[in-house]
Design a protein that fits this description.
Blueprint: H1 2-15, H2 17-22, H3 24-32, H4 36-47, H5 55-63, E1 65-66, E2 73-78, E3 80-85, E4 90-96, E5 98-103, E6 106-111, E7 114-119, E8 126-130, E9 132-137, E10 140-145, E11 148-152, E12 158-164, E13 166-171, E14 174-179, E15 182-186, E16 192-198, E17 200-201, E18 212-217, E19 220-225, E20 230-236, E21 238-239, E22 246-251, E23 254-259, E24 265-271, E25 273-274, E26 282-286, E27 289-293, E28 299-305, E29 316-321, E30 324-329, E31 334-340, E32 342-343, E33 350-355, E34 358-363, E35 368-374, E36 376-377, E37 384-388, E38 394-398, E39 403-409, E40 411-412, E41 419-424, E42 427-432, E43 437-443, E44 445-449, E45 455-459, E46 462-466
Antiparallel strand pairs: 1-2, 2-3, 3-4, 5-6, 6-7, 7-8, 9-10, 10-11, 11-12, 13-14, 14-15, 15-16, 17-18, 18-19, 19-20, 21-22, 22-23, 23-24, 25-26, 26-27, 27-28, 29-30, 30-31, 32-33, 33-34, 34-35, 36-37, 37-38, 38-39, 40-41, 41-42, 42-43, 44-45, 45-46
Length: about 475
């Protein structure tokens, strides 16, 4: 009977909320004589309208391909392409032959073989007259015509001439441009500010940062500022962006740091690996050992520990010695002894630890907050963590270690707005932060919160959007 009930409830939900309000409640009451508990739970769900089938998006999804929502809009395709909002309303009708990314409120669209941009109101602000386009950055969009590139603004005005062999997106008011195999920079008025004279610039399509950019000639890297002045000589094999006034540089196989103000090598190039500075400290390694240095290169945490480069979290860093893990503070003192098999960084005053195959959480005083007794445990999300007991099932614990949901689930995902997807047997549903099952476990799959706050669930190769009120 339960199988029959589940099938009927699923059909009722898929039929749409309007019908569910009128007729299915009475039908469910008839079935309840055979299975009162299961049916009453579903009746409550339908009566309080905590699940609503979004018929607009569902029906659109049957006829068209709907891309993921980005900045509140999605490309919709069905022979032609257009744009819809998260409620399924058409912003742009199906009139374009292709469409791509949405960035800074601008979506690239194609008519025939030519590209342009529409805004989030559906206005064609850059007509489709270009051979190719790239996403907007700092209000500037890259456009290509006759194998040359330039930039337009959000009114469609051509502000950087289409004269260049290649371009890189704007950053800090500067756009990288390439001509005859060399790179330079122009401003938003199209003026060449830094001469086109470098073999390479920037890193991974990121150019200016902290008022300087990496530039390369003859395989050697350095930095220039927005006026084109060389602030660090081009003498390094590899360089990274400045962070906290320091940039990591490599000469040969060794690393050090240069100063942003003076351009001088403030930390000698002697380490095997380094990480960028954070909070005035940088993780470094030498001869298989690691520690931390300050901005002047002084070792604040001795380079004596095992493990990979890391960062401080809430004033403590996870370190390893003799195969065990503990924590040190920013002046190198051992705060939590090296006794754990593995640890994670501190967050909200707690750290996930593992000892003798069991998992839990400790505080900065090394006392257990959540007892180290579980076979596995997740990160805390909305003040709850999924924990796995020795029966192989998952439940929920709070930050005081109290059990909030019983250990009966086969999977529990992270909480978003105090609701998490979960799996029970072969079916999926949702639980809230009180351990209550707020979406019945009748679905083949649940994708969790979408951009507009609804859930996307699957049943028998169909999908439904559900409204699930966030728990308090």
């Amino acid at each position: 009977m339960k199988k029959l009930l589940t099938g009927m409830v699923a059909l009722l939900l898929l039929a749409g909320c309007n019908n569910a309000k009128k007729q299915p409640v009475d039908d469910a009451k008839d079935i309840a004589a055979a299975d009162t508990v299961a049916c009453d739970a579903v009746i409550a769900v339908l009566q309080n309208d905590s699940l609503r089938n979004d018929s607009v998006l569902r029906e659109l999804g049957k006829k068209y391909e709907i891309w993921g929502f980005d900045e509140g809009v999605s490309v919709i395709c069905g022979g032609k392409c257009g744009l819809i909002d998260s409620a399924g309303n058409f912003i742009v009708p199906l009139k374009y032959d292709n469409a791509q990314f949405t960035c800074e409120g601008m979506t690239a669209v194609c008519a025939g073989v030519k590209w342009g941009f529409v805004d989030k109101r559906g206005r064609e602000v850059v007509p489709p007259i270009y051979d190719d386009v790239n996403s907007f950055s700092e209000g500037m969009g890259a456009v290509k015509l006759n194998d040359k590139w330039g930039f337009v603004d959000k009114t469609g005005k051509l502000v950087v001439p289409i004269d260049y062999d290649n371009v890189i997106s704007f950053s800090e008011g500067m756009g990288a441009v390439k001509m005859n195999g060399k790179w330079g920079f122009c401003d938003k008025h199209g003026r060449q500010v830094i001469p086109i004279m470098y073999d390479n610039v920037g890193q991974m399509n990121v150019t200016f940062s902290d008022g300087v950019v990496q530039v390369c000639n003859d395989g050697m890297w350095g930095y220039v500022d927005t006026s084109g002045k060389v602030v660090v000589p081009l003498k390094y094999a590899e360089v990274y962006p400045f962070i906290e006034g320091r940039a990591a540089v490599r000469a040969g196989n060794k690393w050090g740091f240069v100063d942003r103000t003076t351009g001088k090598e403030i930390v000698p190039v002697k380490y095997d690996k380094v990480m960028s500075y954070e909070g005035g400290l940088a993780s470094v390694s030498l001869d298989g050992k690691m520690g931390f240095i300050d901005k002047n290169g002084e070792e604040k945490v001795p380079v004596i520990y095992n493990g990979s480069l890391c960062k401080f979290s809430e004033g403590l860093a996870a370190m390893s010695m003799n195969g065990k893990w503990g924590f040190v503070d920013t002046v190198g003192r051992v705060v939590i002894p090296f006794k754990y098999d593995f640890v994670y960084d501190f967050a909200d005053g707690m750290a996930h630890v593992c000892m003798k195959g069991k998992h839990g959480y400790i505080g900065k005083d090394n006392k257990a907050v959540v007892s180290v007794i579980y076979d596995d445990i997740s990160r805390f999300s909305d003040n709850l963590a999924a924990a796995k007991s020795n029966n192989g099932k998952w439940g929920l614990v709070d930050r005081a270690g109290n059990v909030v949901a019983p250990f009966k689930y086969d999977y529990i995902g992270p909480f978003v707005k105090n609701i998490a997807i979960a799996k029970l047997g072969h079916r999926w549903g949702c639980i809230d932060n009180k351990g209550r099952e707020v979406v019945p476990f009748i679905y083949d799959g649940v994708e969790g919160f979408q951009e507009d706050g609804r859930f996307l669930v699957y049943l028998k190769n169909e999908y439904v959007y559900l409204d699930v009120p966030a728990a308090e």
